[in-house]
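Our consortium's second objective concerns turning raw sequence data into structural hypotheses that experimental partners can test. To show how far this objective has progressed, the report includes one record in full. It was chosen at random from the queue rather than selected for favorable results. The single chain below, 414 residues long, was entered without modification.
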Amino acid sequence: MRISTQQVFISNVDNISKTNADLFKTQQQLSTGKNVLQPSDDPLASAQIQKFKKEVARTEQFSGNIEVAQRRLSLEEETIEQVNNLSIRLRELAIQGKNGTLTSTDRNAIASEVDEIVKSLDSLMNTKDVQGEFLFSGNKGFTKPYTVDGATGRYTFNGDDGQRFLQVGPENKVASTDSGFDIFEKIPLVTGYITENVTQTVPIVGEVDFLGGDAEGFATFMEASGPLSFDITGGLLTVTDKDGNFVTADSPAVALNAYDLSTNPDAPIITIAGVEIEVSGTADGTSTFDIFDQHNILNTAVDLRDALRDYNGETGEERDQFNLQMDYILENLQGIEEKNVAARASIGGRQNALEQQDLVNEDYKLFTQEALSSFEDLDYNEAISRFQLQQTALQAAYSSFAQVQDLSLFNYIN
């Protein structure tokens, strides 16, 4: 077989170029510490590397979410603990305020302290997290949860009952917030201590009183059916629920749309779910009845402050009414404190769950990084040995090519 001079040169150039490329690739591997520099080096390993990197990134995101959730829950726990401390102080002041030996000046001094507590509670229950969102607004993070109604002086909850969840594991979500509705509003109703909210065009619903009935049953009824709509047309009274269905009274047990005021000139008192409602209007018109509030701690403190300021104790009836209201406030504060304890227990449980999930995530991340390293990271011992071999081969190629290129027939012709 004949090998031309051109073939010799081309073959040697190709070999040297390939050896140079191999040496350069090994040098890059040593510089980066990576075994696979591009997908074409090892398509299967490259696919596994991308998969493991995504898993590591996802796990790191879970860890970030855990940090956010822990920060929010810690702030929430600290906030409602301070609310509980103020609740305990309100209880002490209510008991002190019932003392019959106190003077008007003494009660006003207690009322002034309660007023300062109201301001502190306002600040605490409108706390913001580090992201600038209100902690207790539910899903309405940028809506101030509690504002005071200038007309009534009472506080209204403006958020919703939602919770904001964060993904902290592949199949695990944890609530990072609690709504003020669940913590501060859903307090067990105290019999006799209900404030109604009546919107009406003419005086129809005149008075709402408990007769010692089931406060919780009434609250459940109103939550499911309220607000109730009262309507008088042509002397005929009808009561419907939020869906427009006729409501049946407990006593008398008849559909209220059949109650004819024209044959009952006196203002009738009807009982719905244990609550007496006096219908005091006879002209045509409508009204809407609902529970105004469930006496959250803000409004309970307002009630305590106002009762202490307004009481003069001139008659035995006034003293009895004052003491009864103090009893209502104390009973309501007990329900508030019990709800506070339950809320903190829930927060503690979630914090423990977050700590356990964080440990699981760290272990999973470690195992994933180990698997990633087996595909991606370079074996330096093998790479250095290979580099030395390739370097020796390249030097030999250069040396042999230098000798081959000097061969010529003319060197042997005299």
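The partners drew two points from this record. The helical segments are 5-32, 43-97, 104-125, 180-185, 215-225, 297-310, 316-376, 380-405. The first helix runs from residue 5 to 32. Both points have been shared with the crystallography group to help prioritize constructs.
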